């Protein structure tokens, strides 16, 4: 059995990974890596590919793509009941996305050459995994896991917009522009937020985020106090305020200095329920979007080991 299995999303980084993968493969061969690999041929396939590789016995599964690919591969590590397919399996990341937000908190190099070297370090750190449970628009109960951040409201609005652009100006600018335009259009949402079974807030908000990592949107430090393996969820609420005020305060989110703002609330907890009091709200989980009326968050019962420097 080879040491590594790479799952590559050729469509990531604006489609450029398709051309760049042969170069990565060459670098891996030069560094004498022992590996097999598979490219995805459609969306939402990376989780199945990762799970099959783990079942075959590979213990180092490396996602090559953006936050969406990392999300899918993470989902491939877990059975429906939240237990690991193989507790010895570890996640590696070669980031080829535009957002690249999870690796910022984990400290995985963005530069492919260094990311490849980090895979050899043999070091790994545990990360919590967020579990979101909701009813799909088709009426099915869905359990989806995410490793970085999930949010309802403005975040889903932004990601939907950005995912429909080419993202050719890079993550920072694409998400900044997407956020500015979305703020102008996005309404507030009348929500009820329940933390550890107690009502935390009820009223109009732009965004309710549940975080494990600190960053989203190509470098916005939305949850500066989030710690990857503390066994807690970080809730960040952006309550209703005027749009000029929201735009003005956006700069503070990049430096993570927004938590003291009177219209921001943040807390740590074990479980969060976000319930809309008027219709569906946009949902985002690690950059993948949907639409829900209510969602329950908790931490998955098992952590995932992530290979890092
Ligand atoms: N072969 C494929 N063809 C079309 N889409 C794919 C394929 N493989 C994966 N996808 C989809 O591509 C989307 C984007 O992937 P990903 O998020 O990894 O890249 P990105 O958008 O460039 O990065 P980021 O989310 O960090 O900005 C995901 O929704 C994924 O399901």
Automatic annotation (TrEMBL):
PROSITE patterns: DAGK. One of its GO terms (molecular function) is ATP binding. It holds the Pfam family DAGK_cat. InterPro entries: ATP-NAD_kinase_N, Diacylglycerol/lipid_kinase, Diacylglycerol_kinase_cat_dom, Lipid_Phosphate_FormReg, NAD/diacylglycerol_kinase_sf, YegS/DAGK_C. Keywords: ATP-binding, Kinase, Lipid biosynthesis, Lipid metabolism, Magnesium, Metal-binding, Nucleotide-binding, Phospholipid biosynthesis, Phospholipid metabolism, Transferase. Signal peptide: none annotated. SUPFAM superfamilies: NAD kinase/diacylglycerol kinase-like (SSF111331). One of its GO terms (biological process) is phospholipid biosynthetic process. Residues 1-136 form the DAGKc domain. One of its GO terms (cellular component) is plasma membrane. Coiled coil: none annotated. Its cofactor is Mg(2+). The keyword Cell membrane does not apply. The keyword Protein biosynthesis does not apply. Belongs to the diacylglycerol/lipid kinase family. NCBIfam families: YegS/Rv2252/BmrU family lipid kinase. This is Diacylglycerol kinase family protein. It comes from Proteinivorax hydrogeniformans. The lineage of its organism: Bacteria, Bacillati, Bacillota, Clostridia, Eubacteriales.
């Amino acid at each position: 059995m080879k040491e590594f299995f790479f799952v590559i999303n050729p469509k990531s980084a604006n489609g450029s990974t398709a051309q760049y993968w042969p170069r990565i493969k060459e670098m891996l061969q030069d560094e004498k890596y022992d590996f097999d690999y598979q490219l995805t041929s459609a969306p939402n396939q990376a989780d199945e590919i990762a799970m099959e590789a783990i079942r075959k016995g590979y213990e180092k599964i490396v996602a090559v793509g953006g936050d969406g690919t990392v999300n899918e591969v993470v989902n491939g590590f877990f059975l429906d009941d939240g237990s690991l397919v193989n507790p010895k399996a570890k996640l590696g990341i070669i980031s080829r996305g535009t957002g690249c937000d999870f690796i910022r908190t984990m400290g995985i190099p963005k530069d492919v050459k260094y990311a490849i070297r980090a895979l050899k370090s043999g070091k790994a750190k545990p990360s919590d995994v967020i579990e979101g449970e909701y009813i799909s628009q088709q009426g099915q109960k869905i359990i989806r896991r995410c490793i970085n951040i999930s949010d309802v409201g403005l975040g889903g609005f932004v990601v939907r917009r950005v995912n429909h652009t080419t993202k050719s100006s890079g993550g920072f600018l694409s998400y900044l522009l997407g956020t500015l335009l979305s703020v102008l259009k996005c309404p507030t949402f009348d929500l009820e937020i329940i933390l550890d079974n107690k009502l935390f807030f009820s009223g109009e908000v732009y965004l309710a985020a549940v975080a494990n990592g600190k960053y989203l949107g190509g470098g916005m430090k939305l949850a500066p106090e989030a710690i990857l393996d503390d066994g807690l969820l970080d809730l960040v609420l952006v309550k209703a305020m005027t749009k000029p005020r929201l735009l003005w305060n956006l700069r503070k989110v990049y430096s993570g200095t927004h938590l003291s703002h009177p219209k921001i609330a943040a807390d740590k907890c074990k479980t969060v329920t976000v319930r809309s009091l008027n219709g569906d709200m946009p949902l985002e989980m690690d950059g993948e979007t949907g639409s829900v009326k209510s969602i329950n968050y908790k931490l998955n019962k098992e952590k995932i080991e992530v290979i890092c420097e």
